[in-house]
Amino acid sequence: MLSVVLAVLLAFGGTVILAPLYIGLLRRLGFGKQIRAEGPPGHVVKAGTPTMGGMLIVLVVMFLAMALRIEDVSTLIPMLTLVGVGVLGAIDDFVNVRTGFGMRGRYKLIWQTVVALLAATYVQRHFDITGVNVPLLGTIPVGPLVIVLFVAFVIIGTSNAVNLTDGLDGLAAGILTFSFVAYLIIALVAVPDLKVAQPNLAVFCALIIGSLMGFLWFNVHPAQIFMGDSGALGLGATLAVVATVTGQLLLLAVIGVVFVAVTVSLILQVASYRLRGKRIFRMAPLQHHFELVGWAEEKITLRFWIVAALAGLLGVSLFLASVPA
Q: 272-291 pLDDT, tens per residue?
């Protein structure tokens, strides 16, 4: 537990110290966010705010992970996923800054699919996963190929879900913090399939939590820096990999319920408009609907954080209830 606390403090301190320098560098390089005209009207004032803040989180986490020497079977793939998908997001951020539009969706999806399949295959083989853990019910046997495809699907889905949620100051970073706290606790508990706890994975989660909290110091409203795709895509994919490594992938639907709700709102909006010619929400994803309804940005963020905290508590409770005494 001491190493977990130390990891949080180191990551928080490192991010808070480096953030002003990083923000200044982004400003000098002209890495200001371009705001699309079809977005909420109130977002126009955010144009020019430095983006690609997620790379600072990636750099701090990876530097400290190597300094603390926590690389093992349980942390290697989450670390590689964070870097691999984070680089994809950084490229997307760069293209957005220069053109006003990000990379083509098909190119991002190809990159995400490759990383997701590699990560899913590695985890399935090294942990010899032969089933899916269902909270309160136990493990349901599933073939290796099905597991790999399902895990890859969840990694891609979570990555994009976090990216969709990253639409308000502090929103995605705060929700991610609660989600990683939940999996940090899960990683510290020994479960039957793994036989032992995963302390290094818990420390890795702690590094991400500390860095996210440091980032939030500058990302809360009014944001001095945006996370960008470099953080949202990378951290979303990493969260899914961590969930897989702990053997509690299905719990991600509970712990990350805000990400699920945001994604479902967009799917319903598009489907309704194409099938009926009518919109369900004033604007999708969900957080923008509440903006247009009249909720203040800070109120939306805090209320989503509350839901995320409760979801994390429920997810951990379901996990503990499923662990044999």
A: 999 998 999 999 899 999 99
